[in-house]
């Protein structure tokens, strides 16, 4: 984006300029030695400057230098470190290219790179050498490089007109725009021709041919002027940036903004280059716009590829690209230009005949008519496919092929209209019958399009004349009024056909947009309803594949790399080139692979999946069609889909992060509770054991027998308490790990209650136990060991909370399909808010500031054991008086129910 210039009178630095300056300080500095033609001494001057920097103590290496056998140039390389070139295999040959990995590993302060516009050998990391330079600069390494003016992309057409030679190796203007310094290596045409004759540039035989063609004095003068102007423009840009960054007052640019209109025709490439040159001359921001009308849906794949190429070139040349839907191209362009403050519009000259312009209209004429205060540039752009220049255009005649089926259907519909007219002839006036044919023509226009409708109009006119106008069954017309009627019939049919066809195209485009909007809505709704990452990836891959007709693969980060996590079709595999491209996209957050500037040899095009916060992955696209994988409209659709998918992926990942954070918090909470419990429940019995054992050791001989027995009993009791505590910890670990597998068999509940009471005799010694367990209860499936432990934990809990000498009651009764066992006490009871929480791990009921001694594991273990055996347990309070009630429900096996019945 281009920021607005400072307002008049505001003497403050531009924030955008300061930000841009700060960002550039993190990158390496680029200096370009620019020449008007080969042989002016660019490489020589670059090496001289490199040697001077080395003399100043700068670490300088040669990345690549082409001396072309010149002795004086080779001599300048002496004393400078040369990075060995990498060898790339291509068609049985080994080609030498700059080893970018070696340069980056060496990491000098300055690297010399000759011939910036050079095309790398196939299989290299980047197709172009300037892309290697960009990567070097991104690592903070300064670069000196050389470039001829004919290799500048926006000047490609101009150089071709001057020299009659079109240069295929070009460099985007954005490279020159980001250069920190441009040094013009200037040489007069006469001096350059003299060097050429002396054999200092080419061999003598080649030199004579070069002087006759490329190196003519007129060509060299024109190229020299181009180089001088381009360098001057860059100097002006640097001066303006400096003034804005430092709030230096002075004359400002007029604030022009340029908008170039592009379409599917190949001349749009030349229009984009012209707009870039115009923007350079005016030092103005610029953009390329395409209006998507109803006819855009019917474009061929080749036409869509040409449009995509034009828009892609505009981006490479530093322009903004805009695609908007509309109906009237000229009106929509002028409306957009007016609302976005564009002062100049560039468009191509119409190549239609006058008759075609009368029927279809002329966009150029409409732009001029509607432009108002906006300047319009109508240029005779070069047709890239037909070759030549604006002065000499060779139009290639292409034989159009049409499907005759719509025309046959149109003829059939005209025949139907004729039959209806013949049937109505005796009821209607002959002029009214013409309306029957008009209806038929409208039907053809709405269903089949413009050209079949025009064909039907002509057939209808002949049929109307032949069958209904006197004299009948001839093509001659006797009545002058009938002639006028026939002419008006043709006129109305043509106009109606055109309007109906246009409405049909607009309706089709509207349906397509509505279907696309509906698909996007359903996709968004589907993503919102998915909770797992796999579901999001599958939905994304399937939706993109079905809507864009491509094959999709999605890669997500895993550790320090990325791996394939989804795709459609699901059995797609990646080769080494694709893996390298995907990794490059993930590391640099830029496109790579097929159709991109980086690693274009890959099978797929890889694009980053990112949100406003971060990048979440990489998506690869592939299809069987030649040319670009995505057309401009598909690119917009993909961006909409990818944005939604990236947000959904991020949402799932954030939910996972939140869950992990909650688990970590719960683990910390449990760890804290466990440490608190252990510190209390280990310290108390250990202190008692240690005290009793120490007393026995030191005073055993002087103690009475009863005291010694009491001390030994203390050691035993506290040891058993420790053993129960450790057993509870182990049992809780088994439950939480899901490793609890009860050994079920039929048992009488009364027997297990008795066994548990015998085991808990010591802890219940100060309580009265009331038992009401009928002897005829049915047998239930239980693990005797686990159920006994459950009862022991409940008895232990009751003994802790119930005052001494209060009763503990055990009741049991049978229902048709279950047995219920209740254990109640006369303690303080359980607060209503804690009835469910008492079964949580390490939870203990508080009473004021007091917390009852214990680990908080007993009831949690009891619930785990009961649920593992297929039962349930709940906590409550007694209805009469105080006290807690724990109720266990156990299912009765079916055969036991039948037997008791």
UniProtKB/TrEMBL annotation:
<keyword id="KW-0597">Phosphoprotein</keyword>
<dbReference type="Pfam" id="PF00512">
    <property type="entry name" value="HisKA"/>
</dbReference>
<keyword id="KW-0812">Transmembrane</keyword>
<keyword id="KW-0547">Nucleotide-binding</keyword>
<dbReference type="InterPro" id="IPR005467">
    <property type="entry name" value="His_kinase_dom"/>
</dbReference>
<keyword id="KW-0067">ATP-binding</keyword>
<feature type="transmembrane region" description="Helical">
    <location>
        <begin position="483"/>
        <end position="501"/>
    </location>
</feature>
<dbReference type="Pfam" id="PF02702">
    <property type="entry name" value="KdpD"/>
</dbReference>
<dbReference type="InterPro" id="IPR027417">
    <property type="entry name" value="P-loop_NTPase"/>
</dbReference>
<dbReference type="InterPro" id="IPR038318">
    <property type="entry name" value="KdpD_sf"/>
</dbReference>
<protein>
    <recommendedName>
        <fullName>histidine kinase</fullName>
        <ecNumber>2.7.13.3</ecNumber>
    </recommendedName>
</protein>
<dbReference type="GO" id="GO:0005886">
    <property type="term" value="C:plasma membrane"/>
</dbReference>
<dbReference type="InterPro" id="IPR004358">
    <property type="entry name" value="Sig_transdc_His_kin-like_C"/>
</dbReference>
<keyword id="KW-0808">Transferase</keyword>
<dbReference type="Pfam" id="PF02518">
    <property type="entry name" value="HATPase_c"/>
</dbReference>
<keyword id="KW-0472">Membrane</keyword>
<dbReference type="InterPro" id="IPR052023">
    <property type="entry name" value="Histidine_kinase_KdpD"/>
</dbReference>
<dbReference type="GO" id="GO:0005737">
    <property type="term" value="C:cytoplasm"/>
</dbReference>
<dbReference type="InterPro" id="IPR003594">
    <property type="entry name" value="HATPase_dom"/>
</dbReference>
<feature type="transmembrane region" description="Helical">
    <location>
        <begin position="404"/>
        <end position="424"/>
    </location>
</feature>
<dbReference type="InterPro" id="IPR003018">
    <property type="entry name" value="GAF"/>
</dbReference>
<keyword id="KW-0418">Kinase</keyword>
<dbReference type="InterPro" id="IPR036097">
    <property type="entry name" value="HisK_dim/P_sf"/>
</dbReference>
<comment type="function">
    <text>Member of the two-component regulatory system KdpD/KdpE involved in the regulation of the kdp operon. KdpD may function as a membrane-associated protein kinase that phosphorylates KdpE in response to environmental signals.</text>
</comment>
<dbReference type="InterPro" id="IPR003661">
    <property type="entry name" value="HisK_dim/P_dom"/>
</dbReference>
<dbReference type="Pfam" id="PF13493">
    <property type="entry name" value="DUF4118"/>
</dbReference>
<feature type="domain" description="Histidine kinase">
    <location>
        <begin position="677"/>
        <end position="894"/>
    </location>
</feature>
<dbReference type="GO" id="GO:0005524">
    <property type="term" value="F:ATP binding"/>
</dbReference>
<dbReference type="InterPro" id="IPR006016">
    <property type="entry name" value="UspA"/>
</dbReference>
<dbReference type="InterPro" id="IPR025201">
    <property type="entry name" value="KdpD_TM"/>
</dbReference>
<dbReference type="GO" id="GO:0042802">
    <property type="term" value="F:identical protein binding"/>
</dbReference>
<dbReference type="InterPro" id="IPR003852">
    <property type="entry name" value="Sig_transdc_His_kinase_KdpD_N"/>
</dbReference>
<dbReference type="InterPro" id="IPR014729">
    <property type="entry name" value="Rossmann-like_a/b/a_fold"/>
</dbReference>
<dbReference type="Pfam" id="PF00582">
    <property type="entry name" value="Usp"/>
</dbReference>
<keyword id="KW-1133">Transmembrane helix</keyword>
<keyword id="KW-0902">Two-component regulatory system</keyword>
<dbReference type="InterPro" id="IPR029016">
    <property type="entry name" value="GAF-like_dom_sf"/>
</dbReference>
<feature type="transmembrane region" description="Helical">
    <location>
        <begin position="436"/>
        <end position="463"/>
    </location>
</feature>
<dbReference type="InterPro" id="IPR036890">
    <property type="entry name" value="HATPase_C_sf"/>
</dbReference>
<dbReference type="GO" id="GO:0000155">
    <property type="term" value="F:phosphorelay sensor kinase activity"/>
</dbReference>
<dbReference type="Pfam" id="PF13492">
    <property type="entry name" value="GAF_3"/>
</dbReference>
